[in-house]
Structures are given as C-alpha cells and as structure tokens.
Amino acid sequence: MIEVSNIYKSFTLKDKRTLKIKTIAAVQDISFSVLPGEIYGLLGPNGAGKSTTLRMIATLMSPEKGSIKVSGLSTTQHPNEVRAKLGFLATDMDVYERFTPREQLKIFGEFQGMDPESAEKRGLQLLDNLGILDFANVKMDGFSSGQRQKFNIARALLHDPQVIIFDEPTTGLDVLTAKTVLDLLINLKTQGKTIILSTHILPMVEKICSKVGIIYQGKLQTEGSPKQVMERFNSNSLDEVFFTLADSKEPKGGQ
Ligand SMILES: Nc1ncnc2c1ncn2[C@@H]1O[C@H](COP(=O)(O)OP(=O)(O)OP(=O)(O)O)[C@@H](O)[C@H]1O
Ligand SMILES: [Mg+2]
Questions:
Q1: Atom 9 in ligand 1: which residue has the minimum CA distance?
Q2: pLDDT tens digits for 212-242?
Q3: Which segments within the chain are labelled E, that is strand?
C-alpha cells in the first residue's frame, strides 16, 4: 500500500542573468492512497508535479512537509527497507552502454540482494515477456529508445517488488509494445501488486486504472475511478475532463 499524506516540495532556482531567486512550489498539500491490486494513474500537464511526487514515493527526494508510507514504512525513516519493496521506472534512467541486458540484470539483481542465477533467470523471463529476449546478449549502445525503455522496465521489476512506481511507462513505445507493457501491468495488478503510474496517454488510463488523480500546478484537483471523474465533469472522456480543468486553471490573455 502507498499512503501519501499532505506532502509539499518546492525548488529554488536562480535566474543567472538577474541573480534573482525564485521558488517553485512543485507539490502542494497532495494526499492519496493506493491499495494492493490497484493501478493509480497520476495525470496532469507538463510541470504539474507528477514526477516530483513519484520521486518522493520512491525515496529519491524527501517531502518538506507531510509524510509517505510504503507498505506501512515511512519513506524518510526507513528508505532502504522501502527501496527493497519497490520497483521504480524513471523517465531519465541511464543504462550501461558497454554491457548487455543479461550482464546488467545480473548486476542489478545483486544490488537487490538476489543471487546472480535467479536474477539472470527472472531477468531473461522479463526480457522475454517484453519481447526483447533476442537482444539479451547484445551490448546496449545500439539500443533504440523503446528497447532501452523495455530493459528499464525489466530492471525495475527484477526483484518482484510489491509496489511498482512507473513514470510514463509507455513513452517512446509503439502501440504494439505499449500494449505488451499494459498487459504486463494488468497482470501485476491481478497478482495484487500496488501500482502507481504517470502518463499523458489518457485512453490507456481509462482502460487500466482503478483510480486516477489529476494534478494541476502542484495540487490534486480531483480523484476517483475514471468513471467517477468523468461523471463529475459531465464528460465522456478523460481528455474532455483535462480540457475543462485547463480552461478553469490557465491564465487568460495570452500570458
Ligand atoms: N530538480 C529540480 N530542480 C528544480 N525544479 C524542478 C526540479 N524537479 C522538478 N522541478 C520543477 O517542479 C515542477 C514540477 O515538475 P515535475 O517534473 O514534477 O512535473 P511533471 O508533472 O512530471 O511534468 P512532465 O509531464 O513534463 O513530466 C516543474 O515546474 C519543474 O520545473
Ligand atoms: Mg514528469
């Protein structure tokens, strides 16, 4: 289970020309929870605060205020234990270009405390599920962005985590591959995993998410099942909900 309670996070930026300091409130008083067997879709426009929220859940950043618990453990008090329970896919994950997926999965498995053989076995199974088993022994420097994304998904799931945090999992994937990833997520959901993802692909959310939360300018604007949210906004699609919310939030007059 993921329990996010009243979290805040701001960033301080310095304008190099004017030397003025600017503070961006990236996440402001966000609360929600995700239960085992649920896929929670975190939605919102660019810069809304989705990745910042996911990074805090994944222990890569601490909230300034509020708290986050993963499987009952505080992300700030027990980061190592929390990290062992979760699989995180970021949007900016690097791979070791000079190594093959097989070699890297063995190494990442060891980082997670797995024995090399079971890490390799499970890694190869995941590469097979994702349709890149043929590339298991190929150095990654020539990999396409979609192949890298699939490898990073396999890497995130290697230790069979109970909690799965995927930031834009289908970015860069063709429709067929995206479907493979969605099927994998649905399968993990039926296994009782706790899953949160961010995405801009709203029809996919309507299909697979048990719940959605829409963030705008760092604040959670609405939450519920896709159906509930659409009904609340009197809309036939989440795209329409998005347009309605954008209309009510964006400053008018071309600013
Ligand atoms: N490390 C950082 N330093 C400074 N500002 C940051 C940092 N990370 C995020 N921000 C700012 O916080 C805000 C929220 O960013 P975030 O990456 O969480 O948005 P997002 O919803 O994931 O957007 P996108 O859909 O474009 O990925 C943005 O204004 C961003 O510029
Ligand atoms: Mg993001």
A1: 52
A2: 999 999 999 999 999 999 999 999 999 899 8
A3: 2-14, 21-34, 39-43, 65-70, 73-74, 86-89, 163-167, 194-198, 211-216, 219-224
